[in-house]
Design brief:
Elements (H helix, E strand, L loop, with lengths): L2 E10 L2 E3 L10 E9 L3 E6 L5 E8 L8 E3 L2 E5 L5 E6 L6 E8 L2 E3 L1 E15 L8 E9 L5 E16 L6 E9 L2 E9 L4 E8 L2 E9 L7 E8 L4 E9 L2 E9 L2
Parallel strand pairs: 3-7, 4-8, 5-9, 6-10, 7-11, 8-11, 9-12, 11-13, 12-14, 13-15, 13-16, 14-17, 15-18, 16-19, 17-20
Antiparallel strand pairs: 1-2, 1-3
């Protein structure tokens, strides 16, 4: 596998750092770039409250401050396949190509492009409360956030074999008040959904809004130009399969 990491330009109060993971105070501006020219499989097995990503920014999401601004995460695949797998009682874990956790996210972009087959797989023995996504942002403080997410792939396969309260999405956002734009483009192949389990979600774009504020703006676009779109369910109770999914939590 050839992997080119043009790591991180990190600006914080006038300083410059290079890092492979970031956890810090407020006011960060970060750029992360990855180029891949081979197939990649990411696996989580028997994990708990774990995070797995190619680009990962973590800024104290429990603080009342902790701002990520004017930042970018970009991954270019060059037509190769990306597979995300979770199994063996993995629970409360995140798996994404681009992953951000921060108190506030402003003027920030996540882009995953050039993927051949994007395959999400959660096994029958998986635990509960997991997220798989191409791009994922978690910004939970009562601060207005603003960000853009985009995924481009030839084909996508969503596969959930069990578990409960698990999510698979091209783009995933969990936030309070926010201005969000999500785009998921499937350019030439199929869009396949297979789902079992309880209260699981599969969607091209997912927003979970933790705030009841009416000041938020959400735009979700899913484009499929392929041969077919197949929905299939087996013993799937209370679950959701859709192109775009928005949920405002009370």
């Amino acid at each position: 596998m050839k992997m080119v990491l043009r790591l991180f330009s990190v600006l914080c109060q006038g300083s410059f750092l290079l890092a492979t993971s970031v956890a810090c105070a407020d006011g960060w501006s970060i750029t992360q770039d990855v180029d891949l020219d081979n197939h990649l499989t990411m696996s989580q097995t028997g994990s708990a409250q774990a995070s797995q990503a190619l680009n990962h920014i973590s800024i104290d999401k429990n603080a009342t401050t902790g701002t990520l601004e004017n930042s970018r995460q970009t991954i270019r695949f060059g037509g190769k396949d990306l597979t995300l797998r979770q199994a063996a009682s993995t629970h409360s874990s995140y798996q994404a190509a681009n992953l951000i956790t921060a108190g506030q996210v402003t003027n920030t972009q996540q882009t995953l492009t050039g993927v051949g087959v994007l395959h999400f797989h959660q096994a029958a023995d998986i635990g509960d409360g997991n997220v798989q996504a191409g791009n994922a942002i978690i910004s939970l403080n009562a601060l207005p956030s603003q960000f853009h997410q985009r995924v481009t792939a030839d084909e996508v396969v969503f596969e959930q074999e069990g578990g409960a309260n698990n999510i698979q999405a091209g783009n995933f956002a969990r936030t309070g008040e926010a201005d969000i734009t999500q785009g998921f483009d499937v350019t030439s192949g199929n869009v396949l959904y297979y789902q079992a389990g309880t209260d699981n979600v599969q969607a091209g774009n997912v927003v979970l809004m933790e705030s009841s504020s009416l000041n938020s703006s959400v735009t979700q676009n899913f484009t499929a130009a392929g041969i077919r779109v197949d929905y299939s369910s087996t013993d799937s109770n209370g679950s959701v399969k859709t192109a775009n999914y928005f949920h405002q939590k009370q």
